[in-house]
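Consider this record:
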Amino acid sequence: MKYCKKCLMPNTRPGLKFENGVCIACLNYEKQSSTDWNERKNELKKLCDKYRNSNKDGYDCAIAISGGKDSHFQVYYIKEVMKMNPLLLSVGNIDWTETGKNNFENISEAFGCDIITFNPNRKVAKILFKKAFEEIGSPTWYIDSLIYAFPHNIASKLGIKLLVYGEDVNYTYGGKYDKEKSSAKFQSLNDVVKPIIWEKWLEDNELTKKDLQSTIMLTPEQIEENKMEPIYLSYFVPWDTHHNFEVAKRWGFKQLIHEYKREGTIEEYNQIDSIGYLLNQFMKYPKFAHSSATEIGSRWIRSGLKTREEMIPVIEEHDKKLDQGIIEKFCTFTGISTQKFWKIMDKWYNPELFKQDTDGIWHEKFKVGINN
């Protein structure tokens, strides 16, 4: 297990490349300082002008949002800076926090935008949360799939050609497809959402293909056929999640800290719409030995908010913690016991990175920031 020399991301992150001991996420962040952002902004303006008033008095474009800090920044930039008339497309949560609800409502009120929201099928969600947790270690596969599929599908049906996403996850944070690009046409390949395993999930007859139809996003070929142009805003403007948070606050975005104090995280402004959803984020820890604290801490290091040395003890303390509220909400929603929850969790711990004692507790074989 090797760590980046500059931040604290390990090489266990799937697809993360290193050059001379530095991860591609750090290298790509550094590229922002030499990028001609005025030129990129002009590129975006030309693109917006191409679609401005394309639907006469209707929507110029669509923006895929959750209602969080990055969503606020996206809508701010497209509506207030580019002066477009966007339709906002979102997928609802199974268990909203009050803060998440308020932020979602705020994004419409602050910017004066219409929102179409897809509310997940709760019966299907209960079945798939359990199946995905046990079989692929990605409990929120269903919600993640909807988040990717719904904006494409509804924009296509409404005839909206320009569809705006936030960051290119593979380029910004590292992954298999880490070449910088403005087009989000191949977003389905970024490995955030695993491919559907139809046969396995349909074999017990709890679900049908129709139940999963809403999770299927358009293929790159279908996107081209519909003459759609999905883009990443992060290609056109400097992308820093903490900066996005600071901008979002100026437009009424609120942190979770006044409602709920989470274990295992080091901030209260990222992925705060749902507590249970964070199980997916924690699952990176048993599998890859890094989770929320590592990811956020590494972002802070890149942006100069913290040093690598400052973040090592913070990550050691927080990354291993699984919030009790996450367990309770997941078990209550899926109907499994706490004991079964931990039995399933045990199968996802990587024995090369962890060892289990006689009482079933897992312990790290690694030291944060130290190459093994």
In short: The first strand starts at residue 18 and ends at 19. The two ends are 5 Å apart (CA to CA). Residues 300 and 371 are 21 Å apart (CA to CA).
